[in-house]
Design a protein that fits this description.
Blueprint (H helix, E strand, L loop, with lengths): L10 H24 L13 H4 E18 L6 E6 H4 L23 E3 L5 E4 L8 E5 L7 E10 L4 E10 L8 E5 L8 E9 L5 E10 L6 H11 L6 E3 L2 H12 L4 H19 L3 E3 L3 E12 L5 E8 L4 E5 L2
Antiparallel strand pairs: 1-10, 1-12, 1-13, 2-9, 3-9, 4-9, 5-8, 6-7, 11-13, 13-14, 14-15
Bound molecules: zinc ion (ZN) (2 copies).
């Protein structure tokens, strides 16, 4: 197995690099914080040995992904009764062309007006009612038997009399409102579909660092543009990074272990995301954090990311 160990920059080199960049940026501030009254100010007088109070060894993991934005395939169908439709906020993009996602103010998927279509009620076959036999036993008429007194003898005889049933108007059947469509005959379905965004493919940098600096975003952006300017160890498989991280860095701690875990779940998420592809290899960078105090007593920090050969620095000085 080849040696995967990466050399971290030494503290003096980090401090030196910071000092030179700070001098370029604001020499007056440097002089104010490190100068001696009455003496000629010289950068040589500012040394790591004197002003670095403490240091911590951390690590960062970086990779970049390519994400296709606007190709969401979320598709959802909803079936409702007619009066519910007016409660839904519908959208229409007919003839509107592709939508610029940056200008879009709303959800990525929305109910589409043009997708509304009737679905005949299955229960009543789209009639709106079902039929049931009338309480007149389906005869459409009511038959009564009366006692009629007949003739001189006043004999009691039974005679029947019929009249039309008032419930079914003589038809024998009753129409009952369908319990599923409530008489509307149809239910309505509509689709919630992705807004037709213009497809944009973008590179997105992803950084996880155990130092949790406030420069994460800045470092992420810099790495995206300057990945060749910083030396790290490249891995093709996350598993490999996981197993070789400690040996590669030559140090390890709980925060680094947690950072690797976080980066791994992020990486897995992007692997599963069908709109994303992982574009770069996975980089493991040593990070050094220097806690410093100026001659005046102000505290500040310097971070380095990269190897002794190629590293970048960040500072809140
Ligand atoms: Zn009837
Ligand atoms: Zn029905």
């Amino acid at each position: 197995m080849p040696d995967v160990r990466i050399k971290t920059p030494n503290l003096d080199d980090i401090f030196e690099k910071w000092k030179n960049s700070a001098a370029r940026k604001d020499r007056k501030k440097l002089e104010k914080q490190f100068g001696t009254k009455g003496a000629v100010f010289s950068l040589d007088a500012i040394s790591a040995a004197e002003y670095v109070v403490d240091n911590m060894k951390e690590a960062a993991i970086y990779f970049s992904i390519k994400k296709t934005v606007g190709l969401s395939s979320n598709k959802d169908e909803t079936v409702v009764m007619a009066p519910r439709l007016s409660k839904v906020q519908f959208y229409s993009f007919k003839g509107a062309g592709k939508i610029d996602k940056d200008n879009w103010n709303g959800n990525d998927s929305v109910p589409m007006f043009d997708s509304i279509s009737p679905v005949p009620c299955k229960t009543c076959n789209g009639k709106g009612y079902t039929e049931k036999r009338c309480s007149c036993k389906g005869e459409g008429k009511i038959t009564e038997t009366w006692q009629v007194i007949e003739g001189e003898e006043q004999k009691k005889v039974k005679k029947t009399f019929q009249y039309s049933c008032p419930e079914c108007y003589g038809s024998g059947n009753l129409q009952v409102q369908c319990k599923d469509c409530k008489g509307y005959k149809n239910l309505y379905k509509y689709q919630t579909l992705p807004v037709p965004f213009k497809t944009v493919v973008t590179g997105i940098p992803v950084l996880h660092s155990s130092a949790q600096t406030k420069y994460e975003k800045e470092i992420e952006k810099d790495l995206h543009q300057l990945i060749e300017e910083v030396e790290g160890i490249k891995f093709t498989e996350f598993k490999e990074l996981e197993s070789k991280a400690e040996a590669s860095l030559g140090y390890y701690n709980k925060k680094i272990s947690k950072t690797i875990g976080d980066a791994k779940s992020d990486y897995r998420m992007y692997e599963k995301d069908k709109d994303a592809t992982i574009q770069s290899q996975i980089y493991l960078f040593p990070m050094i954090q220097l806690m410093c105090t100026t001659k005046k007593g102000s505290k500040f920090e310097i971070y380095s990311i990269g190897s002794d050969q190629k590293f970048m620095i960040y500072s809140n000085f």
